[in-house]
User: Fold these one by one.
Assistant:
Number 1:
Amino acid sequence: MHKIALNFEDGVTRFIDATADETVADAAYRQGINIPLDCRDGACGTCKCFAEAGRYDLGQEYIEDALSEEEAEQGYVLTCQMRAQSDCVVRIPASSQVCKTEQSSYQASISAVRQLSDSTIALSIKGEALSRLAFLPGQYVNLGVPGSEQTRAYSFSSLQKDGEVSFLIRNVPGGLMSSFLTGLAKAGDSMTLAGPLGSFYLREIRRPLLLLAGGTGLAPFTAMLEKIAEEGSEHPLHLIYGVTNDFDLVELDRLQSFAERIANFSFSACVANPESQHPLKGYVTQHIEPCHLNEGDVDVYLCGPPPMVEAVSQYIREQGITPANFYYEKFAAAAA
Ligand SMILES: Cc1cc2nc3c(=O)[nH]c(=O)nc-3n(C[C@H](O)[C@H](O)[C@H](O)COP(=O)(O)OP(=O)(O)OC[C@H]3O[C@@H](n4cnc5c(N)ncnc54)[C@H](O)[C@@H]3O)c2cc1C
Ligand code: FES
């Protein structure tokens, strides 16, 4: 049995189980998810999707009009013909609503809430329901703010282990979630989560990776690194983690422990404030070296507050280098 992540156009992800004998479309329908489908015969192309990761058999029965050789080489599949040979990630060109599914909700309670520094909070939540929560490292959930009807988006900063997941949260003075977490929150408090969501997740590592984090934009990378620590990587991975002030720098021990556990992983951390006591000063872009961009044969992952994501994207464009893949996540404020 393989796990297939179906990523819908609206950012919702649902996981289904598929045996090696059934098509991905049959597995989805068996589990109540109506992905686009018409002839079921490999003739119409209605079920064409993009396989982001995994090994699979495309089938022999479809016609060129439905899926061309070139499309198959690029990673397109017909889900009415595709049979999984490993866990896979499939992008569905339709919204979750059209496919008669929606994001899942979970109830859990706070297992730990800790102020790592004046600006940063570590939150862990735990619950039996969460042991069924599957997500791709790098994705996020909407967390309900207790005592209000509002939700805030947070990237998982860890994998799910024994029904527990963690987050790394910036303390925005006067912010709704920030005020709850720094004032009222205590172990045992209930929280609701809805998700997982998002297209910022770790793809198969096929070339060197450059990971660029701004502030708590580090969160999705620590989840990705947990996964990479389990599976290893043949390719070099370099993380540059930039913050504004010395007190924003957190989780350095954890990054160091990843560097010890993952053979090809290295990182640097820099602080923008010129008065910083940290040895490496400046912005993330000042510490990108030509070898990190590898003449474009690199997958870049970038996450942080919107101005940082825009500045770094522009810097990379100005270098005249087009990375093989460029994925980013902006931590946009809900209340902006
Ligand atoms: C996909 C996604 C993933 C995210 N993941 C994370 C994460 O892992 N960690 C994390 O810390 N945040 C993350 N965020 C941001 C997060 O969702 C909240 O916006 C943030 O935590 C502020 O929430 P709040 O309730 O404390 O403040 P709010 O009540 O939403 O805001 C209060 C005031 O502060 C302003 N404000 C909000 N955020 C900022 C900011 N960053 N800088 C300056 N002013 C701000 C607002 O405009 C508003 O005026 C993510 C956002 C998105 C869209
Ligand atoms: S449904 Fe027609 S090709 Fe798959």
Number 2:
Amino acid sequence: MIVKLVARVSVLEGKNKMAFIELNNIVKQFAVKNKEVTAVNGVSLTIEQGDVYGIVGYSGAGKSTLVRLLNGLELPTSGDVIIQGENIATFSQSKLRNFRKKVGMIFQHFNLLWSRTVLENIELPLELAGVAKSQRKERALELLDLVGLQGRGDAYPAQLSGGQKQRVGIARALANNPDILLCDEATSALDPQTTDEVLELLAKINRELNLTIILITHEMHVVRKICNKVAVMELGSVVESGSVSNVFRNPQQAVTKRFVQQELQPETDDQALIAAFIANNPEGKIITLEFKENNASEAVISKIIRKFPVDVNIVAGQIQQANGAAFGTLTILLTGETQAIQAVIAYLHQEEVGVLEYEQE
Ligand SMILES: Nc1ncnc2c1ncn2[C@@H]1O[C@H](COP(=O)(O)OP(=O)(O)O)[C@@H](O)[C@H]1O
Ligand SMILES: [Mg+2]
């Protein structure tokens, strides 16, 4: 039913910062039943300190393997993982252990110990690091506060909601004051509202602790919400990367377009609503506006009403904020003379608002 999509917006580049993590042409192969499986196939990436770096891809793309290479749990078959100028393949055992303490990790299924209280779970990495009991407790209480779980220290994981469990996971990951936090599908088991709450917590931690966050996901929503950079993986390779706003505005690869589309397409519920509107308003025209950067959606709508002899009805819409810019769709019903409606569409093109037009089947 969707006929065409017009108008793409110009591209701006971000500023330079010091390279913090560099992956140089990483290949990782596994031997499975006498066969080589290439999980990561020639990945090069630069991650800067303070980045919230999203890695997106469908299942099997090699994302989790990449994460295990980043914390030194696996070594690459070839290529180099460089952390602040040092190749982790050259680390001694003790240096590698210390490095791993500085890399926190959270998981889709939280990986909490069910027989331990919340506080004891958070204390675990400190216990393993040989920190004295009183200090451990003090630090764990501090972390409990940071993640918004004050007063729940004596609860057991089974007594907590999914979002609260992930908060415990985050507190535990931060116990050793890491420099890097790796999140592997950390919100994939959560409902949308809880996902947003956990993402807001991660954004706060990134800001307040200047922690570099690498966030793996198959949901573009997660990237849009908190990442500044994104790399898209397919079959072990990074097929596209850059600032989130550039990739969202101007996706190049088919897989990226699918991910971005997953975000910008009107929801299925809206599609049904739109179809009903088209059926009930044969003289009107339904269009979906795509706001891909700060087009100031309200201003655009009020200008249409002022400048053109048409009526505008809002049918459906989801305008959201990402990194200070507005993204999203707004579906409107335009009624008026055909010429006036065409003039509105021309005006939208001129304003660089994307326009999806629908036609009756
Ligand atoms: N330890 C392993 N041994 C064998 N094959 C593996 C191993 N880890 C990952 N793979 C394979 O590598 C590919 C990428 O897996 P993974 O990194 O888990 O992808 P993703 O996290 O994007 O779903 C898959 O085909 C997977 O089966
Ligand atoms: Mg995975």
